[in-house]
Amino acid sequence: MDGIPVAARTGEPIAAALMAAGHHVFRYTPRRHEPRGVFCAIGRCTDCIMTVDGVPNVRTCVTPVRPGMEIRTQEGLGRWSK
Amino acid sequence: MEQVELAVVGAGPAGLSAAVAAARLGVQVAVFDENSKPGGQLFKQIHKFFGSSQHLAGVRGYDIGQHLLEEAEAAGVAIHLDTTVYGLFPGPRLGLVCHGQSRTCRASGVVVATGATENALAFPGWTLPGVLGAGAAQTLVNLHRVLPGRRVLMVGSGNVGLIVSYQLLQAGARVVAVVEAADKIGGYAVHAAKLRRAGVPVLLSHSVLSCQGNPRVEKATVCRLDQLWQPVAGTERQLEVDTVCLAVGLSPLCELLWMMGASLAHDTRLGGHFPVHDEDLRTSVPGVWVAGDASGVEEASTAMEEGRLAGLSAAEFLGKLTPGEAKERKAEVRQSLEALRSGAFGEIRRRAKAQVTQEAGDCFAGWRQL
Amino acid sequence: MPAGASFDGYPSRGELESSPGYPSRRRMESGPVAIIECVQEIPCNPCETACPRHAIRVGEPITSLPVLDEDKCTGCGLCVPACPGLAIFRLHLHYRPGLATVDFPYEYLPLPEVDTEVDAVGRDGGVLCRGRVVAVQAGQKTGGTAVVRLAVPAEFAEEVRSMSGGLEHER
Prior knowledge:
The complex is a heterotrimer.
Chain A: H1 14-20, E1 27-28, E2 35-36, E3 49-52, E4 55-59, E5 71-72, E6 74-75
Parallel strand pairs in A: 1-6
Antiparallel strand pairs in A: 1-2, 3-4, 3-5
Chain B: E1 2-9, H1 13-23, E2 29-32, H2 61-74, E3 78-80, E4 83-89, E5 93-98, E6 101-112, E7 116-118, E8 131-133, H3 134-143, E9 151-155, H4 159-170, E10 174-180, H5 189-197, E11 202-204, E12 206-212, E13 219-224, E14 237-240, E15 243-246, E16 250-252, H6 255-259, E17 264-267, E18 272-275, E19 288-290, H7 300-317, H8 323-340, H9 343-369
Parallel strand pairs in B: 1-2, 1-6, 2-3, 6-19, 8-15, 9-10, 9-15, 10-11
Antiparallel strand pairs in B: 4-5, 5-6, 7-16, 12-13, 13-14, 17-18
Helix pairs in contact in B: 1-2, 1-7, 3-4, 4-5, 7-8
Chain C: H1 5-8, H2 13-17, H3 25-30, E1 33-36, H4 46-50, E2 56-57, E3 67-68, E4 88-96, E5 99-106, E6 117-121, E7 127-137, E8 146-153, E9 162-164
């Protein structure tokens, strides 16, 4: 996450792995730069979105981890990097 | 175009029960669910369910989920996972998205069992990481085995608030307090008793005013409320918590029915807006049923019975049951629903449902004569 | 402030004594017996089928309060882990001179070890006295609900309903 390795269990959602590793801020809002984290944990609210492997706005609570995934704290609406 | 006899939206307790009931009568059933695992919210229910011994009471939610899946498999139900139903159109046709690919499916009948969503509560600081739904905390702890925090304030003493508080204790968190805006506990006392004997205070006529922290929750301010649920000045108290869980009710998820033009009604006893339905769970759109929390928020046990009822009614509509057989079998399920809705807690929902289904029944009968 | 199950989260003495699942003092004196602390009409009846002697009756509708036939009850304790609400206990008032045992359902890990001393707590979580764990029935056969038997001074037996020291956050 943001360049630092995070251990995860096979198949668990990104959000679970990050919370287990002590990360609770997943993104910052576009206008006021306020922190956001997990709110519903079942893929409804989109509060926990991050940039995953260059794709912004990925719902981390319902997206399983994969080895080597690059996860970035999302700034605002995020940006496609590929 | 893909074609199924009965499409069921949602693989939770209501959807699976509907699918099993219909498939056992020879209906070709396809269940669609946006999640990668079936079961809806059943697999995070680690407590033993209430209800009747004949209907799996005393069995933990995840075991009920497993049981339903086995029944669905044995009945030949096809469950399509990772498949979001994004639209419901006249026909009826379903718009589906699976792994980024969209397709359309035509069905002779549709059961909408989309469940409910947790309500939020807005107060200064409610957007901070560390404020989350009680159901979210339950998912994290019981499914993913991660504690959202170590010191928790639970807002709401309905069964969800009480049960999730207990499960957080079991997972090793400390529940600093449960606050309840009303002047009595909302859920069952037996759930509250488990918390009380573990030393958790339940503060009645109390709510959360705000929470503070950077970048996540570090403190929450609670206060007493007067009879009109207004904060009483001077009663503010700061609690050291890193997590605030909101257990302030659920609302039916009925957008699909809404977009299809099904009539909606509003009743706070059932969680807000819900699709109008008769006692067979038929909506105002012919060939479309609703079941479970989507038809008005209740419990998993009632959701399963409603699913059964909708499945039977759909099978009857599709010609797999004679009206006589259907009448008898539906009456059985309705009786079980009545039993689950009796008692001081169920009575409110029983009356709400009775009113809704009677009005809808009269109304639908009127339409058929037009 | 009104008292009782809906307000305190646990039944008051009055609610217990007027509920049909709470045995008489005479019955408690005469040997082990089930204590059913279920005072709200909720749809639930596994206690009825759990009892091999048919000493607990819920009947129809299933929201009826469980009725304990205290003469049929042998105090076997099978109903204790069967109650989904964890609201049934077993009381043996005359376990040893001056000592009673209380069996309560327990769903926390780790389970206490036999012969350890723990704080015995009441319905409100307050510590009442010390108690000694005399038996632990693990939950494998009872859907995960363990049962802990605690020996406590007899005068606390009607109040002791759990123990503390097992919860992770307390350590």
